[in-house]
Amino acid sequence: MKAEFVIVGAGSAGCAMAYRLAEAGRRVTVIEHGGTDAGPFIQMPAALSYPMNMKRYDWGFRSEPEPHLGGRRLACPRGKVIGGSSSINGMVYVRGHARDFDHWEESGARGWSYADVLPYYRRMESWHDGGHGGDPAWRGKDGPLHVSRGPRDNPLFDAFVQAGAQAGYQTTPDYNGEKQEGFGPMEQTVWQGRRWSAANAYLRPAQKTGLVTLVQALAQRVVISDGRARGVEVLRNGAVEVIEAECEVVIAASSINSPKLLMLSGIGPAAHLREHGIDVVADRAGVGQNLQDHLEMYVQMAASKPVTLYRYWNLISKGMIGAQWLFSKRGMGASNQFESAAFIRSKAGVDYPDIQYHFLPIAVRYDGKAAAEGHGFQAHVGPMRSKSRGTVTLRSADPEDDPRILFNYMSHAEDWEDWRTCIRLTREIFGQEAFKPFVKHEIQPGADVQSDAQLDDAIREHVESAYHPCGTCRMGAADDPGAVVDPQARVIGVEGLRVADSSIFPRITNGNLNAPSIMVGEKVSDHLLGRDPLARANDQPWIHPDWETDQR
Asked: What is the DSSP string of 453-508?
């Protein structure tokens, strides 16, 4: 089998690249180990807790015992399905802050500043404000990716925003527009009641051109000869075959599987490859290093009134919601229920937000387990820019073995200080007048947890991954010994091979990573086609005028 371009991974970036390459008339083969995304568990937004806990759709990765979290092994879901993680995620849409991308450029990723990436966000979006206001001039209007807002018809959504304002924080009509900082409506990749994954937005339209072939197989290694990628060796239906690339191979297999595939192909830290009997093609020390993620905790409150989603947390109600969604694509099933959000700064002297909130009008975990106390609500909170770094390394040279994943969470002293601040600021927000009619008492971590030592114990026990791993094939200057790809996403030291997904992020962005991952696919597609990048934007983001002296 042969194509002009071979893409490994039908996830967020891979689908976007397939679409843009096919739009330009190029022949593409996309390799995806997972199967179909059909069915209500994926397509119904409110069912989001199901696919990320199903082996059918999820690679099922877990970290190694985390030394700073009491040896806990944390879940690291990654999509093993058409659409990749965009088919199993929470559908929250966050571009990231402008300063995140300016940092990328400053670290050596030239051409990836906010001025460079904003035009790609506009190109990819079809934005719908849902009647809740926003910044239309900052948004895209006719892209493949529909971005919408939920109805926000539960009183707790407004209470959260009002409480933020009462606590002295900014409000914002559009955290993806000019002003990220503040409390306001949250955005979701949902359209006409369905999850609008990268598969729905990009891959299916691309397949209709007849130029995109989807192959269900396990990619085992990139075939490299004379310093150039020639294709991808796959295991399909029990047989090994090679899918050849006339032009280039692009790895878009996630921040976990992309470095794994590079190392299986002989690209990575030489000593580590030799440990597993792998011939070294390119000694790149940065492959699998620089692993980053966001941690979060649910600060949960028991509700004094039955206004939460707990009233639907029974088989009969769930069945009725599911039936309504199946027949009309409306009702409770048509939203992810994350409809209010906030980005704030932890202290004076921080120039842009470093804490994120998702508000949810029920006290429940991602695994679908509700709090034992019944009616409640919660804020998912966590710091955005931890200095802790982890690794992805090979467990063996067997492509069917999961890699070793060690995030090294909470390994930096500042992490503990940042986390205590997160919890205390959240309690202050829940203590505002807007929540007085709704708050009964604190469920987690519990009102008796007050001292630094008590908070640290609660953090160690309760923090969970927000499922935003990135950074393991870091982008940087070609002469940077720690960089894996150059600013055009080309693997340094190998011709005809690129990596394009969240693994190339030099540093994690503010918020959820699906939007910037798709943006990477959009931008790298222009590099693949040899096109000039889109014209730089001149829009200047809002930065708090008194950030040096005021926390809010």
From this structure: HHHHHHHHHH-EE-S--B-TT-B--TT-TT-SB-TT-BBTT-BTEEE-SGGG-SSP
Buried b (16+ CB within 10 A) or exposed e, 24-38: eebbbbbbbbbeebe
Query: Is residue 380 annotated as part of the catalytic site, yes or no?
Result: no
For the stretch 173-227, pLDDT in tens is: 999 999 999 999 999 999 999 999 999 999 999 999 999 999 999 999 999 999 9
In this structure, which amino acid lies at residue 58? D
pLDDT of residue 492 exceeding 90, the answer is yes
pTM for this entry: 0.97
Taking the C-alpha atoms of residue 256 and residue 272, their distance in angstroms, rounded to an integer, is 16
Q: One of 146, 375, 380, 468 is an active-site residue; which one?
A: 468
Q: How far apart are the first and last CA of the chain?
A: 58
For 452-464, the pLDDT digits (tens) are: 999 999 999 999 9
SS3 2: strand
**Helices within 10-113 (DSSP H only):** 12-23, 40-43, 98-106
CATH number for the region 127-189+292-465 comes to: 3.30.560.10
- Every domain of the chain and the residues it spans: 127-189+292-465
